[in-house]
Amino acid sequence: MVNLYDILNIPEDANVIAIQRAIRLARDRQDIEERYLKLAENYLLDDKRRAQYNKQMGIKMHARRNGLSVGSDKRYLAGGIMLVAVLVIPWIIVMMLQGKATEQIYQQKDGEYKAAQEAMEKAWGVAPASGETKPQAVQRTLDDITEKQSQQLEQTQ
User: Could you tell me the keywords of this UniProt record (predicted)?
Assistant: First the structure.
């Protein structure tokens, strides 16, 4: 008996959709005789006949549900592990580097972040006695810092 799976160039555990697609492509290309295509339609698309055909051919099939293998498939497990590795490991590295960068900013004595943080704390401590609100005091302090930095930049040039 002829191996219809080899003729259609599909795996033995192919689902019905893959078999239909292979038959349709073979008809479009006209590279397989029509009698083999009819045999494939009759035997491979009907579950009972396919089971008999596979038994005659000595093909052992795993139990299938909705086109997916019921048992564990190592290819899917490996793919899942690779997906986790590709997505999670870079994220962990980025988080670690970000933590180190934050530590370096905090450790700098003359760091801009530390100066800005101190200025913010100072601004929030300003009483609105001068008629301004706390957000206005914060904005004024930030403007002062920006002006001081631009003056320092001009002096260095």
Answer: Membrane, Transmembrane, Transmembrane helix
